[in-house]
Amino acid sequence: MEDNKFTLVGIQEGASEHIAAPHYSYWKSVFKKFFSNKIAITMLIIAGLVVAMAFIHPLISGYDPAVNPYINDRWRQFLRPSLQFLFGTDNGGRDVFSAVWYGTRASLEIAVISTAITTVLGVAVGMLWGYSKKIDSFMIEVYNIVANVPFLLVVMVLVFVLGPGKWQLIFALSCTSWLSTAYFIRVQVMIIRDREYNLASRCLGTPTYKVLLHNVLPYLISVIVTSVARDVPNFISYEVFLSYVGVGMGAQEASLGYIIQTYAPYMSSAGYLFWIPVGVSALISVSLYVVGQALADASDPRTHMN
Which pLDDT tens digit goes with each residue over 264-301? Predict the structure, then answer.
């Protein structure tokens, strides 16, 4: 009699629970998608270098915009860019390279803090706004009133009232900008508010905050990243413009906008004083925008499908 060619397999209770689909990790897919974008990686490197220079160089150089130690040294005035002075010197003989990175740090601080305030308030209010029909009827009227007033006009009036300064400008930029973010989030929440799992959660008596945190917020990650990617470059541009027209930062906290405004009269005679800070401002705004948009696209689960 031949040996039995079959092997008895016992009952495996966990086999029915096994999922044949490959393992899916959301954040792993996000970074895989993001790092496959060569343009985004290039811009990320550029943005990283600019941010690193903005925060490290002022600490090393000890540059202080309130001090002008070389005003009497005529031989250091209006020197063109060279190996000794990479961005040249200004009318006071100060190193423009140090001034630009100091100003970049100030502009970045304003943009990042304003974006953080705008995002936190906007997301929190927007989720409640879109989820509650009672709050929606009130907030939509507030939004219609505020949205019809030009944003830059509100900021300029607030800066005139509060005076120049970093924190005054941050307050002015954040005062109404969060409302636009909240409206943006409200629309997204309304799209998913009445889906079956949210209705089931309400029927089971789940508290509203749990529904928002566990059922709604995870679906808004890509939307929030998109909002942040839009706000940081925008706030940098707003700061540069406001400081350029004289209603932003003062001399004590010289930002990129203040530097551009200070050097604007020398656009013809010493163009490098004006165009170098303008170029740095444009470079950091464009690089952060491209990186943010690529990350927003990568954080959308629909882009992870093969």
Answer: 888 888 888 888 888 888 888 888 888 888 888 887 77
Query: Who contacts 138 (Cβ-Cβ below 8 Å, separation ≥6)?
Result: none
pLDDT at 17: 59
Count of helix runs (H) and strand runs (E) in the chain: 11, 0
- 136 belongs to a structural domain: yes
DSSP string computed for 220-283: GHHHHHHHHHHHHHHHHHHHHHHHHTTSS--GGG--HHHHHHHHGGGTTTSHHHHHHHHHHHHH
**Beta-bridge partner residues of 63:** none
Q: List pLDDT tens digits, range 102-157.
A: 888 888 888 999 999 999 999 999 888 888 888 888 888 888 888 888 888 888 88
Domain contains 124: yes
CA atoms within 13 A on the CB side of 212: 17
- Cα 299 versus chain centre, distance: 15
Query: In the block, which residue shows the tokens 């936190």?
Result: 120
pTM of the model: 0.80
Question: Which uninterrupted H or E stretch holds 172?
Answer: helix 166-192
Q: What domain count does the chain have? A: 1
Among positive and negative, which fits the CA dihedral 181, 225, 243, 60? Answer: positive
| Phi, psi angles (nearest 5°) of residue 204 | -85, 0
Question: For residue 197, is pLDDT > 70?
Answer: yes
The answer to whether residue 42 sits within a structural domain is: yes
Using N-to-C axis directions, what is the helix angle for 133-147 and 166-192, rounded to 10°?
140
Range of the domain at 265: 27-62+87-304
Distance of alpha carbon 128 from alpha carbon 6, whole angstroms: 63
Residue 46 lies in a domain: yes
Whole-angstrom CA distances from 129 to 99, 190, 197, 219, 237 are 44, 9, 19, 16, 29
- List the CATH number of the domain containing 251: 1.10.3720.10
